[in-house]
Design a protein that fits this description.
CATH class: Alpha Beta
Helix content: 25-40%
Number of helices: 10
Oligomer: single chain
Structural class: alpha/beta
Shape: globular
CATH architecture: 3-Layer(aba) Sandwich
Order of helices and strands: EEEHEHEHEHEHEEEHEHEHHHEEE
CATH superfamily: Thiolase/Chalcone synthase
Strand order of the largest sheet: 6-5-7-8-2-15
Largest sheet: 6 strands, mixed
């Protein structure tokens, strides 16, 4: 377990971007029975989501979000000391996508760059890494990019497409006077609960190659559900035992948007009032590591919120991994959600 209090950092801005393409769940009536679709929506909460076009990637969405955030904050790019790209849908097997974004954003050689391969728990893990970087040495400002895409995959069947939406986000973390507290956990015994078993060195893809079909992931839903409803309430209990306070001390509790039924179950267990648990999965689907910052942006667009938001967040999923983290952010520094079809036209595509 990782527990930490950071007294000298602040979340100074959040931007989120989604593709312009929208798919409504009822559009799958040609592939599934209407009753089955309605049952899916009732359980998961998904009514529609945004998906990328053929050439658009996670890094494209994160790039747009990052440029908007940098412009909003009116900071010089040479003041960014580190860039973290957290995703399970990189541009290339190698190099790290953070280096592609380093080039596109025009960052300096003094700015370090690295990727993190993590999914639905990724936002709280990424903030933890960013805050840790700020504790020592010369790093004073970190650009944290998180998101995932998979909506273009033409081989996915309806049941595999219906839950997940595409999004990319940018969060600026820098030295400051705020306090951030966190609790993180992992359980590798559940590594097979959500997995893409083929396509790397353990199980190389054999000929004939059907790339989209061969690399698709598997999720054992019952195992994930049992893990989530058991471990997340316990994590909140531990968090408050360590740091004090209670759930009602916060304006909102922003969960990773995994499944509406699951979230309501967790909320009941931790005695979270309905009005403090925003839901965005209905319009964006499960957007993996982007779902927390995207959810924060959605709150600021659709609800009357205080000028300074006091938030507690929780991400959970692949690994298995999970965490709880609190932080504050100014409403004025949470940008409206960006809708874009932009992609990197100069991207390297091989010789």
């Amino acid at each position: 377990m990782a527990i930490a209090t950071f007294n000298n950092v602040q979340v100074s801005g959040i931007a989120s971007a989604v593709p312009q393409n929208v798919r409504y769940i009822m559009d799958f009536k040609g592939e599934l029975e209407e009753a089955e679709i309605k049952k899916f929506t009732k359980t998961t909460g998904v009514e529609k989501y945004h998906y990328t076009s053929e050439k658009q990637t996670t890094s494209d969405l994160c790039y747009v979000a990052a440029e908007k955030l940098i412009a909003h904050k009116q900071i010089e790019k040479d003041s960014i000391d580190a860039i973290i790209f957290l995703s399970q849908s990189p541009d290339y097997i190698m190099p790290a996508t953070s280096h592609v974004l380093h080039k596109r954003l025009g960052l300096t050689q003094n700015c370090i760059a690295f990727d993190v391969n993590l999914g639905c728990s990724g936002y709280v893990y990424g903030l933890y890494l960013a805050a840790t970087l700020l504790q020592k040495g010369s790093i004073k400002r970190v650009l944290f990019l998180a998101g995932d895409t998979g909506g273009y995959n033409p081989e996915l069947k309806a049941k595999d497409k219906m839950l997940f939406g595409d999004a990319g986000t940018a969060t600026l973390i820098e030295a400051g006077q705020d306090e951030i507290q966190c609790l993180l956990k992992s359980d590798g015994a559940g590594y097979g609960a959500i997995i893409s078993p083929k396509g790397s060195h353990r199980n190389p893809i054999k000929e004939p190659l059907n790339y989209f079909e061969d690399i698709k992931g598997e999720m054992h839903g019952d195992q994930v559900f049992e893990f989530t409803i058991s471990e997340i309430p316990k994590a909140f209990k531990e968090f408050f035992e360590i740091y004090g306070g209670e759930i009602n001390d916060y304006d909102y509790c922003v969960f990773h948007q995994a499944n509406r039924f699951m979230l309501k179950h967790i909320a009941k267990k931790i005695k979270l009032p309905t009005e403090k648990m925003p839901i965005s999965i209905d319009r964006y689907g499960n957007t993996s590591s982007a779902s927390i910052p995207l959810g924060i942006a959605d709150i600021c667009e659709t609800q009357e919120v205080p000028e300074r938001l006091k938030l507690i967040t929780s991400g959970f999923g692949i690994g298995l991994s999970w965490g709880v983290m609190n932080f504050e952010v100014n409403k004025s520094d949470v940008l409206p959600i960006i809708y874009t079809d932009a992609y990197y036209k100069e991207a390297y595509s091989g010789q």
